[in-house]
């Protein structure tokens, strides 16, 4: 009898409760409406809150783009009669500084320029003075690749200024920021081996975790019989990561190449150059 009365009372109480709640909510709402203008409630009652329009409610993340200097305007090459010209021998080297950032974002066909930092003296007292402009053209470039290759930029020397005019010249880059450049390829860091190493490190970390689990299980008299299982699983995972590392390493991109303006370069002529 008591049990039935308790159930009946519980049903009545739960039936009345929503109505009571609704009535309470409505009364509170009516009280707010009488005291405040609900359309201005947010800004009049809470004046320190900033107004946020729907269009500005979402934070926009700006896209980052590589920053580098604009390329140089291609020079006008002056034709020359070699019989009366000053000859600059093949393999002559020039110590220069770049007038703009040299990077793998430069497009093929772009013109770049350099300023000599020291005079180059030749027979007969003729010299190419410091501050001489040497021009180059980007003949190849690409961004880092997923095969682990870094970025690339290839610059071919195409012109040399002397006495206010620019004359044809052919040369290559042999040093960039005091580092030797081979085959005229200025390259970003190759990351293939680093990618292989990361994959092997993952396998080793997994093996260590399973070994720790096995050690904890061996301290338990009930689980001790199962303790070799995590070690076997961990060793298998380590082996799989090691075997697959040469393949997964191909997914790793290489590094970008970006040498700031004002950096030191060495340029070398590949053919004789002639100036007036």
Brief digest:
The protein is α+β, with helices and mostly antiparallel strands and 276 residues long. The protein is built from four helices and 14 strands. The strands form four sheets. A six-stranded antiparallel barrel has the order 2-4-7-8-9-13. Strands 1-14 form a two-stranded antiparallel ribbon. It has a two-stranded antiparallel ribbon with strand order 3-12.
Q: What would you say this structure looks like, in words?
A:
- There is one protein chain.
- The protein has 276 residues and is of the alpha+beta class.
- It folds into three domains: 1-39; 82-189 and 255-275, Type IV secretion system, VirB10/TraB/TrbI (Lipocalin, Beta Barrel); 192-251.
- The protein is 31% helix and 25% strand.
- The protein has four helices and 14 strands.
- The protein has helices at residues 2-35, 41-44, 192-218, 228-248, and strands spanning 86-88, 93-98, 102-103, 111-116, 120-121, 127-128, 133-142, 152-162, 165-176, 179-180, 185-187, 258-259, 264-269, 273-275.
- The chain has a six-stranded antiparallel β-barrel. The protein has a two-stranded antiparallel sheet with strand order 1-14. A two-stranded antiparallel ribbon has the order 3-12.
- A hairpin with a 2-residue loop joins strand 8 and strand 9.
- Helix 3 (192-218) packs antiparallel against helix 4.
- The radius of gyration is 37 Å and the shape is rod-shaped.
- It starts with a helix and ends with a strand.
């Amino acid at each position: 009898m008591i049990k039935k009365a308790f159930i009946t009372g519980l049903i009545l109480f739960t039936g009345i409760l929503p109505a009571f709640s609704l009535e309470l909510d409505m009364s509170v709402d009516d009280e707010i409406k009488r005291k405040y203008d609900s359309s201005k409630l947010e800004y009049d009652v809470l004046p320190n809150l900033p107004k946020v329009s729907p269009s500005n409610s979402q934070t926009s993340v700006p896209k980052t783009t590589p920053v580098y200097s604009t390329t140089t305007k291609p020079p006008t090459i002056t034709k020359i009669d070699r019989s009366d010209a000053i000859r600059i021998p093949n393999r002559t080297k020039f110590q220069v500084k770049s007038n703009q950032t040299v990077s793998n974002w430069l497009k093929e066909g772009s013109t770049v320029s350099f300023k000599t930092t020291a005079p180059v003296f030749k027979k007969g007292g003729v010299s190419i003075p410091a501050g001489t402009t040497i021009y180059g053209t980007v003949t190849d470039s690409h961004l880092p690749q997923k095969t682990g290759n870094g970025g690339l930029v290839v610059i071919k020397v195409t012109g040399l200024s002397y006495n206010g005019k620019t004359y044809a010249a052919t040369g290559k880059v042999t040093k960039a920021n005091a580092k030797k450049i081979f085959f005229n390829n200025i390259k970003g860091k190759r990351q293939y081996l680093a990618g292989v190493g990361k994959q092997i490190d993952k396998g080793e970390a997994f093996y260590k975790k399973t070994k720790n689990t096995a050690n904890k299980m061996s301290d338990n008299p009930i689980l001790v019989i199962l303790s070799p299982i995590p070690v076997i699983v961990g060793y298998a995972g380590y082996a799989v990561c090691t075997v697959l590392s040469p393949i997964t390493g191909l997914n790793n991109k290489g590094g970008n190449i970006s040498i700031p303006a004002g950096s030191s370069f060495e340029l070398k002529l590949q053919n004789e150059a002639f100036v007036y």
